[in-house]
Automatic annotation (TrEMBL):
Protein name as annotated: Pyrimidine/purine nucleoside phosphorylase
Domain of life: Bacteria
Gene: ppnP
Source taxonomy: Bacteria, Pseudomonadati, Pseudomonadota, Gammaproteobacteria, Vibrionales
Function as written in the Swiss-Prot or TrEMBL entry: Catalyzes the phosphorolysis of diverse nucleosides, yielding D-ribose 1-phosphate and the respective free bases. Can use uridine, adenosine, guanosine, cytidine, thymidine, inosine and xanthosine as substrates. Also catalyzes the reverse reactions.
Enzyme class label: transferase
Alphabetical list of InterPro entries matching this protein: Ppnp (IPR009664), RmlC-like_jellyroll (IPR014710), RmlC_Cupin_sf (IPR011051)
Amino acid sequence: MIDDRQEEKMIKENVYFDGNVKSLGFSQQDGESTVGVMAPGQYTFGTGAPERMTVVKGALTIKRVTDADWVTFTAGEAFEVAGNSSFDLQVEVATAYLCEFLPA
């Protein structure tokens, strides 16, 4: 059984953009990840490490610094963003996602 102190270390809550984006962060042997939900809106995220974002339900329309055009990803699709970069998101419907932090 996991006590409350162990659970606090295992799961970290993240809240961004006045509560419109929320995620739970966790670590496994292969690295750190977050799973979360975004409310409709427009957001800009910065990256430290490279990331892979997988849309679980809904859709994310993204534009990375290196992209000329906006690209939409739907449930089951994934995209990667370079480390030390940023990307813009347009979210039309509440969208669930998995973000995996990749080795540099």
